[in-house]
Amino acid sequence: MASKLHQKAFSQCEKMFVVLGSPLGKIEISGCKLGVHEIHLERNAVLQNGPADASVSCEVCEASEETAEPLKQCVAWFQAYFCEPWMIEKLPVPPFHHPLLENASFTREVLWTLLRDVKFGEAVSYKQLANLAGNSKAARAVGGAMRSNPNRWNDEDELNVCVEQ
């Protein structure tokens, strides 16, 4: 019952969005005043090609009339990720507001572990992530948790790259 109530509260949020132009294509961030709901990379995004010394940009292309603080924090995080990666650890992780990340579950533990413990540029296997999340024998369950991640950049990749080994 609590889960249904939580879902209803989530659906009643005043939703806002920001679209960023990035080296990976357009990234759509949606959320409310309580936190980021979802992050999606547009389908069929094309990577920008250019010389190795070409400047990289990550700019707001489109946004709701009002932009909540969590979305602004998420934009700042992406801008640092693409333009100043050494700044990532100095920025707070934006607050997230999604039932999957708020209800106590193994999926929640995996996703928060990924955000908290896997650093910029690192890759971990599902087995390593299971171990970090406190259940070394749950590599397949980690795969399921990653598939349900509301903050994937696309269908194959997660915010912090996770690869099976």
CATH superfamily of the largest domain: Methylated DNA-protein cysteine methyltransferase domain
Measured as a percent range, the helix fraction is 25-40%
Structural class: alpha+beta
What string, H for helix and E for strand, traces the elements in order?
Answer: HEEEEHHHHH
CATH class of the largest domain: Alpha Beta
| Overall 3D form | globular
How large, in whole angstroms, is the Cα Rg? 16 Å
CATH topology of the largest domain: Double Stranded RNA Binding Domain
Strand order of the largest sheet: 3-2-1-4
Instruction: Tell me the distance between the termini.
Output: 38 Å
Number of domains: 2
- Poorly predicted regions are 154-165
Beta-strand fraction estimate: 15-25%
Q: Please give the CATH architecture of the largest domain.
A: 2-Layer Sandwich
* Main sheet properties: 4 strands, antiparallel
- pLDDT average, as an integer? 79
E-strand count: 4
Number of helices: 6
Organism: Podarcis lilfordi (Lilford's wall lizard)
Keywords: DNA damage, Methyltransferase, Transferase
Protein name: Methylated-DNA--protein-cysteine methyltransferase
Domain Methylguanine DNA methyltransferase ribonuclease-like: 21-93
